[in-house]
Amino acid sequence: MTPLPSDHRTIDDLLATARTRDRYAGYDMAAAEARLRARQAARHRPPRQRTAGTAPAQTEWTVPEDERTPDANRAWWDLNAVCLITLGPDADIHLADFIESQYANKAGALVFACLLHLSGDSSGARFWWRFAAGVGHHLAEYCLFLEHVHSGEYHDADHWRTQLVRHQFTPTLLCGERSTAPLLSPLNTDQIHSCIRHQHHPEIGTVPLPTPPLVDQLRHLTSPL
User: Fold this and answer.
1) From CA 106, how far away is CA 60, in angstroms rounded?
2) Domain count, the chain
3) Residue 193 in contact with residue 109, Cβ under 8 Å?
4) Residue 67 near residue 127, CB atoms below 8 Å
5) pTM over 0.90
6) Which residues, given as ranges, of the chain have pLDDT below 70?
7) C-alpha count within 13 angstroms, C-beta hemisphere, residue 46
8) Distances in Å between the alpha carbon of 62 and those of 35, 58, 140, 163, 167?
9) What are the pLDDT digits (tens) for 64-90?
10) Domain-located, residue 63
11) What residues are paired with 173 via a beta bridge?
12) For residues 48 and 27, what is the distance between their CA atoms, to the nearest angstrom?
């Protein structure tokens, strides 16, 4: 029996062979680091600095057909605008239907997710956006695309980008012109959170659920819009 050759490779040799090959020839690392720093700063900017008075002038929506890396800060403003548009006419009716149907109404799920996002519950918003997207709501897919872009989660953003392109989604058709979209104003999140209960599920964790008083709160919040 022929003896196996001895392996005198060092740990450095082994790690060198395990490294992923550079798939991005000519990648500008300095520019990438600058983008990451800007995104991190945008995510942790105090809320009082991210109000309507500091919104950048935007005339176009972030579109999924653009294969370039989307701007994270722009995606944040777009997501807020979409959520405010969603909380427009009939939003209270959709939310009431959502509660009455035992959380099985996709339009109501989108409304609730957008309300959660605007009140600072990003994980709860993601859960209900995914539910609405899973049952065919393309605007929920767009919200997930923007939210993942804003968070720098580009692999997940690409998934929703693919879905949007497949469905030939055009933001202007559902959201109107970007230049006329509403801007974020401070919300009384305490009143919103007091109308939300949290139910623990053994497999998916804690799930936020709206209670009937939230419908009246939504009517109050959206009346100036």
Assistant:
1) 27
2) 1
3) no
4) no
5) no
6) 1-29, 31-56, 185-187, 223-225
7) 2
8) 17, 10, 15, 15, 16
9) 987 778 888 899 999 999 999 999 989
10) no
11) none
12) 36
Q: Residue 176: inside a domain, yes or no?
A: yes
Residues shown for the chain: 225
- Quote the domain boundaries for residue 117: 71-222
Q: C-alpha distances in angstroms, 153 versus 168, 169, 170?
A: 22, 21, 22
Give the 3-state secondary structure of residue 196: strand
> Could you tell me which residues come within 8 angstroms of residue 202 by beta carbon, excluding any fewer than 6 positions away?
none
Using alpha carbons only, what angle is made at residue 129 by residues 66 and 209, rounded to the nearest 5 degrees? 160
- Quick one: tokens of 69? 């890396």
If you write DSSP's letter for every residue of 112-169 in order, what string do you get? HHHHHHHTT-HHHHHHHHHHHHHTT-HHHHHHHHHHHHHTT-HHHHHHHHHHHHHTT-
- On whether residue 136 sits in a domain, the answer given is yes
**54 falls within a domain:** no
